[in-house]
């Protein structure tokens, strides 16, 4: 089993790397922060996982091509892709009327364009093998109009649309695609968005990661294309 995880240097991405390593997966990990990514790679390597760590900015099409090429060169396949890398946008969160256009474009690049491009780069092999899983990490901001969540909410709504459309096109194959909302988690991104949130009321990335790993490794084709909440998985 080979899992490719974006945004793998911290938060949910780091937790996913460790959870998949615990299941014996080989890992391809990418993130912008080379030092933090290297720490995660060492941690999963010490667990016995074969790991490829690629410092990359998912806003760059060239970096995405490099991640896909290096992963396929090393492991010859991708069984599970988790499009986890996300960009919140400016903080404090501005209203759309005041949103910097360049920042809006940046958020869209990370949260919707990058998942499209990376999925497109690896899904051909999944279809040839008639098996594979893509998990797109979404948010309740995709379906609820919170003031100030601007480009993040718009991009996550688009990501859910991408998931539904692609899943419909994958009907009849062994490739499954899901949009999973991890809920409010105790992460750097959540603290940037809501600094006064009580961390004891937030989900732990480790718990969310285990739910996503269970989804990815289970045979649940009936859930493909649906918007899922991590807190309800496995119930």
Q: Would you kindly provide a written description of the structure presented here, covering whatever features stand out?
A:
- It is built from seven helices and seven strands, in the order βαβαβαβαβαβααβ.
- With 235 residues, the chain is of the alpha/beta class.
- A seven-stranded parallel β-sheet has the order 3-2-1-4-5-6-7, sandwiched between helices.
- The radius of gyration is 17 Å and the shape is globular.
Question: What are the key terms here?
Answer:
235 residues, seven-stranded parallel sheet, 15% strand, alpha/beta
Q: What characteristic shape results from the CA principal axes?
A: globular
Contiguous runs where pLDDT drops below 50 for at least 5 residues: none
Give the CA-CA distance, first to last residue. Answer: 25 Å
Structural category is alpha/beta
Q: Roughly how many Å is the radius of gyration?
A: 17 Å
The portion of residues assigned to helices is: 40-55%
Mean pLDDT across the residues is: 92
- The helix count comes to 7
User: What amount of the residues lies in strands?
Assistant: 15-25%
Count of extended strands: 7
Order of helices and strands: EHEHEHEHEHEHHE
Order of strands, main sheet, comes to 3-2-1-4-5-6-7
Largest sheet: 7 strands, parallel
Please summarize what this structure is.
Helix 3 packs parallel to helix 4 (101-129) and helix 4 (101-129) runs parallel beside helix 5.
Topology, element by element:
Blueprint: E1 2-6, H1 11-22, E2 26-31, H2 34-46, E3 51-55, H3 61-75, E4 80-83, H4 101-129, E5 132-137, H5 150-169, E6 175-181, H6 188-193, H7 205-217, E7 227-229
Parallel strand pairs: 1-2, 1-4, 2-3, 4-5, 5-6, 6-7
Helix pairs in contact: 1-2, 1-7, 3-4, 4-5
